[in-house]
Structure to design on (74 residues):
């Protein structure tokens, strides 16, 4: 884990036999904030679209006429 932390440029602090790694991030600005909001909205839209598609498929299956052989099996 220490190797991975160093490789990613993290600051490592060792105290009493334990080590913690910290990653310094640039401060948030308007572009990073709006990017995060946009990604969240796209994810919500994608989720809603997939849900509607699943619901539509379920409705189509429910309305599809069953064949005689399938009706006799059940």
């Amino acid at each position: 884990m220490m190797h991975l932390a160093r490789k990613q440029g993290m600051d490592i602090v060792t105290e009493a036999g334990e080590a913690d790694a910290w990653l310094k991030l640039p401060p948030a600005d308007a572009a990073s904030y709006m990017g995060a909001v946009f990604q969240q909205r796209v994810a919500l839209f994608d989720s809603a679209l997939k849900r509607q598609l699943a619901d539509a498929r379920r409705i189509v299956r429910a309305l599809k006429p069953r064949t005689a052989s399938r009706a006799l099996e059940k």
